Amino acid sequence: KVPLLVYVVDAADHARLPLAKQLLHQLLQEDSSLPVVVLANKQV
């Protein structure tokens, strides 16, 4: 078990954002008490 999740998303890759969202939701369903930091990389 990990103490924290750091989730980095390539914000410039619009085609893959729905997949990134889906995967994050799946991770949160496994452990809803897990602290999460979401970083959006390459924002324009």
From TrEMBL:
Keywords, sorted A to Z: GTP-binding, Nucleotide-binding
GO terms for MF: GTP binding; GTPase activity
Protein's name in the database: ADP-ribosylation factor-like 10
Classification via Gene3D superfamilies: P-loop containing nucleotide triphosphate hydrolases
InterPro entries in the record: Arf-like_GTPase, P-loop_NTPase, Small_GTPase_ARF/SAR
Record-linked Pfam families: Arf
Organism annotation: Tinamus guttatus (White-throated tinamou)
